[in-house]
Here is the input.
Amino acid sequence: LRLFELRPVFAVSSGEELPRESLRLCAILCGRREPEGWAQDNSPVDFYDLKGVAEGILNCFEIEGVSWDGDKMEEPYLHPGKSCALTCRGKHLGVMGEVHPRILDNFEIDTPVYLLDLDVALLQAVSSGFSGFQPLSRFPEVYRDSALLVDEDTPANEVLEAANKAKSAEVVEIVLFDVYRGKGVPEGKKSMAIRVRYRSMEKTLTDEEIAALHGKIVKALEKRLGAEIR
Here is the structure.
């Protein structure tokens, strides 16, 4: 089941005489990830399916630098260990996560439900606008991976935030694709692997140029997070 709704919401805040109106975009997911079929499995949707929906919306608004912070959750209707707040440049864009089991019990729902709630006005406030068509580059893309040792309590969003702040115009995308704990990793540490996609609109990047661009990102991670290259 996948549902969404876009409509004004009125909320009463302490110290205010009149309720505050905001345009909210809400979505829920639950049940199977794929439609029934002989080639499909029965795996249910989870937190990361909802995160993919949220990322798609943020991409439509061309919003970058969003933090996914699980420590700033105050909504009692969401599971405290399986939810997060979305913030960008000091603005609270919304929340997402698994609906609290207590709420589901009240409605006699016996399957996990995942909820996304976004403030549309704030999305517009931090949006860089809709740029429309972007020409495709005639030059090849290049990928570089780096595995970093960081403290166990380092959130993934801090790694991505630090990397994105150091990126150049040739960086198309930075993703976190692996987290490893175990043999070869010191106690109190974890290995987080990032993949950086490089591309120029003007020329084919040389190995030396890519090494310099990638080195800038790695140095920023070392300086800000105390990361070490594995």
